[in-house]
Predict the structure.
Amino acid sequence: MASKSGQPAPRTKPLKRPQQARARFTVQAIFDAYVRIWQRDGWDKVTTRAVALETGVAIGTLYDYFPSKEALHSGYVRHCIERLIQRVDDKVVAAQGLNWQQRLRQLIRILSGNESDGQSWFHPDMLLLEPLIADQKHQRRAYEELLACWQRVFDSCTDLPRQPAPATVEAMHLAVWGGRRYAMLVNLDAENMDRWAQQAELMCLGLLNTPNNPRL
C-alpha cells in the first residue's frame, strides 16, 4: 500500500517478539534509546538509524524486530501496556494482606500513572499517532486486556460483600483509563493528575460502598 506521497507506506507492526534473555535485553535497550531520542529531540528526529546508533546495535539487528520507526513505536506501546498489566497482577491481584479498598486504590494509582515503574514513558503526541499505527482490532485487544485486569482484581477481593456487575466494572475501567488518556492529551500537570487520581479512587469506592445499589 502506498502513502499519499506515492511512497510505500511504512510497515507499522513489529516483526517478532524477543524470546531469549539476550534478545529481550537488546529490545529493551532499543526501547530505552527510542525514549531518550524522543525526549531529547522529538518524534520527527526519531529514525531507525538514530535509534540503532543510540543503542549501539547494527541497523540490521534493529530491523530484525522493527522495520520502521512506526513499528518501533507500536512495539514500545505494546511493551508498556504489558508491563502495566504485569504490575497490576503482581502488586494488586497477587498481593497478600490487602482488603478490597486497598486493592482498588492500588489498581487506580497504577492505571492512572500516579504510581509508575519509572520505565514506561508516554507523550501526548503518542495519542495522535494511534490512527496511523494501531488498527482498531489492536486497540480493542488492549482495551479488553485492561478490562480483564480489572476483573482479576475484583476476583481477588474475597472480602468484597458483593461483586460488581460486568457493566459496572467496565464503567470504572472507562472512567479511569479514559481519564488518563484525556489528561495526557491536555497535558495535565503532576499535581492535577494526582488530584484527579484521588477523586477517581473516591468515585469508585463510593460506587461499591453504596448499599443496595441496584446497578452494582
